[in-house]
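Exam revision sheet. Question 4 asks you to relate a sequence to its structure. Input first:
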Amino acid sequence: MKEEQLIELLNELVKQSHESEWVEFKLNFHSEQEIGERISALANGAAIHNQNYGYLVFGVENETHQIIGTTFKPKQHKKGNEEIEHWLSQRLDPRIDFRIHEFAYDEIRNIALFVIPSAQNKPVDFSHISYIRVGSITRKLGDFPEKEGKIWRKIGKPYELEIAKDNLSAADVIRLLSTETYFDLMKFPYPSNQNGVIEKFIYENLVIKSQGYAITNLGAILFAKNLAEFETVQRKSARVIVYKGRNKVETEREQIGSKGYAIGFEGLVDWINSQLPANEEIGKALRTESRLYPEIAIRELVANALIHQDLSVKGFPMVEIFSDRIEISNPGSPLITPDRFIDSYISRNEKLADLMRRMGFCEEKGSGLDKVIFYNELYQLPPINVITDETRTRITLFSYKKLNDLDKREKISACYQHACLKWVSNSKMSNQSLRGRFHIEDHNYSIASRIIRDALEEKIIKEDDPESKSRKYASYVPYWA
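Answer key, structure tokens:
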């Protein structure tokens, strides 16, 4: 990789919310044995999480993810009289083709990066022992049989390409999948015979040639006429629950999707929007309704929940509608830290994401969160809230509140999201732009100033030009800009 690509890769890796089973940060060298164990653990972790590579980075602080730089130069380092790269390779089984890159992040910070291929045919051993990362700790894989079993099931084949149904004829495939939907959404003419349909579905990895034909999980989850026909994906159907009040005590109605995402997406989004509260406006001649939540934001967040879910774990995408908010969640923790959702993109399910983008269900690049925040501000709603844990990622849209009803945390969060939106729009936040976000009258500029000051104290934004003495024309950017 070129130096520019390495710097870009590093910038993406440090955006993660924490170290993971396939990424580890260290400042400097400790021992050759430790590096060998980490290579084994990261290769095996990458296999579990459907990643092509794992990464061991020297020069980044593991807790803060600050890029500090390192004095470690692995290409010059030796174990006895043997180069470390050769010493490590001799003790790995199988001998995976890991790469070592040394590069200058800037004039004073040097980085050493190990790029480690995912385990392919079996778990990767180091000195006859397989390792895995559990949280931020490297452990023996044999102590975690459920993780070892997951590796064996996943090796060489992501969830999307696993077989959902086998031993099918071409007619069976067309009976089980809505092939017309694919051609309609892609704006392709429908083939004149079954072979033309099957060839296109094989090209898209929706079907593979097996004993007869086999439908992949990707084909089933997108185009199944009935998800219940496919045991591997039937529990991935999206669910919508409408509650009576602000809690889950009383359920008014519930809807469970039965079709593949590509077939049912538009109907899912329409049904969600039909359940959301609306204001009735009476014009000179017509009575119209205006939604309290931006429909385009709902669409983007639902698409994200489908695309970025961890398909390998139990659980399903879910939309929960309360009287004062809507929560959209999916199984799995995100691959990047939530405060970088707006400017970063790492997809857990690349083939699913690619097809859904090409079919027009979501943004071509990124997460679409810039669009969500834009419309959230346009509707004068409180900031969106993101909550993650080991099992789910949840994004919440709140109903309208006056500025005076927002607490300090909400004001600071809205300020940060506004700064992020400005940054990705090639602009910068100012007192004036923040007044526009909150609809603050110009003569009340001190209210916006106070919110900015609180956000600066929280260190989630920073001054664009700290040397400038002018407060009137000061501008601000996210802390990571």
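Marking note for examiners. The radius of gyration is 25 Å.
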